[in-house]
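ARCHIVE CARD
Drawer: 12
Card no.: 0347
Subject: one protein chain, sequence and derived structure
Cross-reference: see card 0346
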Amino acid sequence: MKKIVLLVCASLVGLITFAQRYPGKNYLSPEEKLNNEYCSSLFRTHDGIVFDLQNNNESAKAYANVLEWLQGRVAGLQIYYTRSGTPVPFIRNTRATVFLDEVQVDPSFLDNVSTPDIAMIKVIKGPFVGAVGNGGGGTIAVYTLKGDDEDDNE
């Protein structure tokens, strides 16, 4: 009898372990779904922190620049300001590369992007191969809403 109980317990542990390692597509978190929907294969790394602004945009609407909203939400991220007032992101004391819809831009360009138009932000703290010079200071990728998604939010 002890062998049967032990065999059943071992089987259940094996099944639970298998289910955790190989989750189906139905078990993706909302952030993982956004990551798969918006990011190309180069940006789809799972090392980053994903912020879903498509569904949770209320707190970001109060900020003029999305970089200001990010400060305090990502460990190691500091926003410094130039003399003209432009926010410049630094991750672990190294200047971060900024991408808008996977195109490298100057951080001042994000002043022209309205926060309600942003669907997702992905912060990659480590070196990023897609940036010029491998983005040793980390990367902030901002994704705007797609045309199909804009109709859903109204």
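Annotation on reverse: Residues 39 and 56 are 19 Å apart (CA to CA). The radius of gyration is 20 Å.
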